Amino acid sequence: MHGRPSHEPGTPRTARHDWWGVVLEAPDPGALARFYADLLGWEIAREDDDGAAVAPPEGVAYLAVQRSAGYVPPVWPARPGEQRMTMHLDFEVADLPAAVAHARELGAREAGHQPQPGVRVLLDPAGHPFCLYVDDDGDGDGA
User: Fold this and answer.
1) pLDDT digits over 10-26, tens only?
2) Which has fewest Cβ within 10 Å: 67, 75, 81, 99?
């Protein structure tokens, strides 16, 4: 992408300036960031009254949450006239039942509609859908 710096291999992640991420909205960004940090085993990289971010121990990706006083959780599956899901997060796992149980212990709930085997749609504590999946064919796409 134009405008993004390149870095030599081995550049410490804290010295890089090519971070990228996904930002979710929630009424309590700290709580949702802690949910994803616990779910993924990531660290809280930043937290203040307006938002928070979690990041893995390696790499330059992050998941951020920004405060939204008027947040309305999406409906899954979509229903006419209601807040639609515009994106969701996918996480590959090796043991789907264990991963679902862990997510539920942290406050996620399973969605009522489960569209395919080998994938579990869950809702995080703020209502964002996310998928846990096992990649049975080894191509990394969960399908």
Assistant:
1) 888 788 788 889 999 99
2) 81
- For the record, the structure tokens of 4 come out as 């993004």
Taking the C-alpha atoms of residue 133 and residue 91, their distance in angstroms, rounded to an integer, is 6
The span from the CA of 143 to the CA of 140, in Å, is 8
pTM (2 decimals)?
Answer: 0.86
CATH of domain 15-70: 3.30.720.120
C-beta separation of 89 from 130 below 8 A = yes
HSE, side-chain direction, 13 A CA sphere, residue 108: 26
Q: Which of 134, 141, 85, 140 is nearest to 113 (CA)?
A: 85
Look at the domain 72-143 and name its fold. 2,3-Dihydroxybiphenyl 1,2-Dioxygenase; domain 1 (3.10.180)
Beta bridge partner(s), residue 122 = 110, 130
Strand, coil or helix: what is 71?
coil
| Amino acid found at 131 | C
Q: Which helix (H) or strand (E) holds 37?
A: helix 29-40
> pLDDT for 94-116, tens place per residue?
999 999 999 999 999 999 999 99
Q: Kindly report the number of other CB atoms within 10 A of residue 117's CB atom.
A: 10
